[in-house]
Amino acid sequence: MKSGRSVIWLAFLAVLLLAIYVPIAVMGWTPRLGLDLQGGISVTLKALGDAKSEQMEKAADIIRRRVNALGLTEPVVAPQGNNRILVQIPGEQDPDRVLSIIGTTAQLQFREVLEVIPPTDEKYEATPLTEINPEKLEEYQALKDQEVVLPYRGKDGQEIKLRLGKTELTGDIIKDAQAAVDERHGGYKIVFELTPEATKQFADLTSRLVNRQLAIVLDYNVESYPTVNEAITDGRGEITGDFTRDEARDLAMVLRMGALPVEFEPDPLVENVSATLGRDSLRQGLVAGLVGLGLVLLFMLAMYRLLGIVTGLALALFGLFMYGTIVLLGRAIDWSLTLSAIAGVIVSVGISADSSVVFFERLKEEVRGGKKVRSSVDRAYRSAFRTIIAADAATFIAALILWLLAMGPVRGFAFTLGLSTIFDVFISYGFTRNAVSLLSRLEAFNRPRNVGVGKEILGSEA
Is residue 336 domain-resident? Predict the structure, then answer.
């Protein structure tokens, strides 16, 4: 390999490290830690009324997807007994927001507006609001088929009463929902897309209500009641209201994930989770990892002499890339570092060392055949690279399957293990190969004993 190409590769790695660590150093970023390392909140949701086991499992799955949509925080979501669900979320600073997301039923209803009653109307005082009591489950569910009177407060602060007809359509018709900027009214809105089956139903409904008002009701709170100017036949619509950016994103996410099949207590118990045990385990894990790393380096130095130094540098580079990526992922997608994720990184140290062993053993075979290190690097690496790719591909596939099928902390282990295999290939090809190529131009690296071969070169340079 030409020395110029090797220098370019090493310079590229240096620039890439700078690009990763400059913002980390300037902003003072550190890894986002999981529940077991930094603590967090623990919520117990209690179902109202009788709930079947399959309903609780479905509710737990919906809650899990809702929390995951807040970021890859590796939550613990598990049914407990017949009527409870345990939710643990690491490092959350706004428990009220989380509780509103995981606990809300998100029952979206479309109702015809039968009458708008402003405070100036003599009917205002004489028209009582419908009593909404989620704890009375049968009465709460029966409201869907009844007329209701609900309040609505506009941007002017004035509260009016709306008499609404029975539920025409529910949130089950929504296929997708996203937050968007409301350029007409300011603030944010939710844009939704209907399922193919519901498109005709919604078109029929809006055709019947042309020049009349259709209320969009979420958990018996009127979000908006726009006038239907024309039939909506394309299967798309929007929910407007006085939404902030976070409110619009949270509402869209809840609608997208689906409604909970079970009603839960509106004020669940919130407990603080201590990270003491996790930090003790972290210290012990780091000590074990450093001891293992030291033993690996001693083995590489004993077996490959000067080439072992290259392995040490490659492992240092591997650690820098892993740490920097973990920090950036924590900032970009709220990915959290847990004990299981750290275990994945420690296991990957052996994977990275194995790649060096494969390369160096092939290089030693070339040297035993009478060739010099300098002339053997490319040929040895081409042969070794196929083995490295095959081994890392097998590990990556196993990590991917584990990540797709597992839940909770196990996914952290699978994620870092899969990420490590990608870095291993990258560092092996970009650093180890090129570093050995440049160092092979030194006389010391062309002496067999200095690369772990116990005899002199017998032949001439190939």
Answer: yes
- Asked if 317 contacts 392 with a C-beta cutoff of 8 angstroms, the reply is no
CB-based contact 50:95 (threshold 8 Å): no
213-252: pLDDT as tens digits: 988 887 788 877 878 878 888 888 777 766 788 778 777 7
Residue 462 lies in a domain: no
Q: Is 381 exposed, middle or buried (0-12, 13-18, 19+ CB in 10 A)?
A: buried
Phi, then psi, of 68 in degrees rounded to 5: -60, -30
Tell which residue, 239, 336, 346, has the closest CA to residue 292.
346
Q: What is the pTM of this model?
A: 0.57
Determine, yes or no, domain membership for 460.
no
Residues 184 and 252 grouped into a single domain: yes
The string of pLDDT tens digits covering residues 350-378 is 888 888 888 888 888 887 777 777 778 88
How many domains, in total, are found in the chain?
3
Nearest to 226 by CA among 176, 177, 190, 276: 190
Domain that holds residue 112: 105-259
pLDDT in tens, 319-329: 899 999 999 98
Tally of CB atoms within 10 A around 135? 11
